[in-house]
Amino acid sequence: MRRIRFVPELSFAACLAVLVLSASAAHAANQAFMADSPVSRFTTAQKKQHQEMLFDLAKNAAEGEKRSWQTDDGRTGSEGTVTRSYERNGQPCKDLSINTWFRTMKATNAYRVCQSKEGAWMPAN
Fold first, then answer.
1. Per residue in 56-91, pLDDT tens?
2. Cα 103 from Cα 87, distance rounded (Å)
3. Residue 35: pLDDT band by 50, 70, 90 thresholds?
4. Is the residue at 79 inside a domain?
5. Residue 102 forms part of a structural domain
6. pLDDT value at position 101?
7. Is residue 84 a part of any domain in this protein?
8. pTM attached to this predicted model
9. Domain limits for position 67
10. Which of 8, 112, 115, 118 would you label with 1, given CA atoms 20 to 30 Å apart?
């Protein structure tokens, strides 16, 4: 019977290699996903408008209220709605529904944000 010898350094190296390779694959898949989203096609100025709309929605909008922006021709933009306001662990939170579009490309995403003790609105799990 043949014995297999365990070599900790080689096992660690093999695990590290698997981790690095799988992380690279996950990163590549994530980049491919983002390449197909409307926001990935926004100009720098449009991304700024989108971000400002999201911040205003989180900070100032009540449940049911909407915020939006779009280009003059209406072919690019986003619209957000506060779908629910509530408290979690004593912190104010909101669920947001965000529609984005770039020409014929469209996406709808849901986000949960909560206000930190310092007052900043941050993504929450």
1. 999 999 999 999 999 999 999 999 999 999 999 999
2. 37
3. low
4. yes
5. yes
6. 97
7. yes
8. 0.70
9. 35-123
10. 8
